[in-house]
């Protein structure tokens, strides 16, 4: 069933997100610190049975210089340098197996699939720990360090997402002038942040992005990951204000207000995990050229392979 406002009202919905006054300084300082430390980017060839794709095991410095893993897949023998897609993974997943997710390299792109720190055991394996200390939290990642924006999990994750764009330009086969970002759900949140914060990004695709218009989302759905925030506040009743403040630093609506590259969004009107109005909120506030595909009879899977096919066309047009 439909899970949110009627479609006509969704087309008019705007977020009332109140950004912190130091939002831009917060992210500028965070990224400056990350860029000042860490080992160089490393890419090691991986032996696979693939006849048409070369795979590299990549390690790059993420938040605070901490090592983050990724797979780089490059079409074998393609004349380079190539248009490049940096992909971020949905909640609970990691970079997976080197033989998975071959669409982008098969379509002629260099493809970096970033691992997700501390995740990768829900449905797709990962190899990157989240080494930061955190206080009390609800089960899952959405409230890890949520009492303090500087200790919050998603500060680290979104910094990793930006640093993946920084790192990819030094990798084999990559055209540094043609880099795009892509993600679904949690990955869509990362794509919006990277579109706003990473100067090398030339286009973005955010399918049913998580972490948008968060205060509204928490009151509309009973599903995780937003449910984790509600569960935390149900116990820590006196911390609502500070939790809201922390979340405002990672809200996709704030990133959308700062992003200017061409972007493609998708939204699913029967999505019980990411409320449709929260996607519309980010889409409406997005500053760059944009398009939105509405899937009326789908849930959080959104358009599935149809979204993927449209994303390929979108990036071919945007990157050449």
UniProtKB/TrEMBL annotation:
Domain Acetyl xylan esterase: 2-308
One GO biological process term: polysaccharide metabolic process
An MF annotation (GO) of this entry: carboxylic ester hydrolase activity
Chain residues that bind substrate: 91
Active site per UniProt: 185, 271, 300
Pfam families tied to this protein: AXE1
SUPFAM superfamilies linked to this entry: alpha/beta-Hydrolases (SSF53474)
Top-level taxon: Bacteria
InterPro entries per the UniProt record, alphabetical: AB_hydrolase_fold, AXE1_dom, CE7
Entry-linked PANTHER family: CEPHALOSPORIN-C DEACETYLASE (PTHR40111:SF1)
The protein's name in its UniProt record: Cephalosporin-C deacetylase
Organism of provenance: Micromonospora humi
